[in-house]
Specification:
- With about 110 residues, this protein is mainly alpha-helical.
- The chain contains 3 helices and no strands.
- The protein has 2 domains: about 1-40; about 45-105.
- Helices cover about 70% and strands about 0% of the residues.
- It is elongated, with a radius of gyration of 25 Å.
Length: about 110
């Protein structure tokens, strides 16, 4: 950099905002590591099994939680509608959204 104040008081080179190169170097290293990890498309069978399990749990947990909440609501409220069935559908929908998010994230479409 040009000019008399291109170096900070501690001797490190500064950019226009006064931040050191350390921040830029750290960001650069993290970006390179992320690109290298995404470029690794030789995923094993274990990766597929792990993803399958993650998607399964992403749907199962909200579904079971919805059923439990629905059973509790059915016991507390005296309504004509079935809260268990309603919460079951909501739990499945939430689980599918979570699974979609995981699949999209792992496929590289952030």
């Amino acid at each position: 950099m040009a000019g008399p104040d291109a170096k900070g008081g501690d001797g490190t080179e500064r950019d226009r905002d006064g931040r050191g190169r350390e921040v830029g170097d750290t960001i650069g290293r993290k970006a390179e590591r992320k690109l290298r990890a995404r470029g690794d498309r030789d995923r094993s069978v274990w990766f597929g099994i792990g993803m399958f399990g993650m998607v399964g749990w992403s749907v199962a947990v909200p579904t079971v939680a919805g059923i439990a909440l629905g059973i509790w609501l059915d016991g507390v409220l005296d309504d004509r509608i079935s809260w268990t069935l309603t919460m079951l559908f909501i739990g499945v929908a939430v689980g599918c959204l979570i699974a979609w998010h995981w699949i999209r994230k792992e496929s590289g479409h952030d």
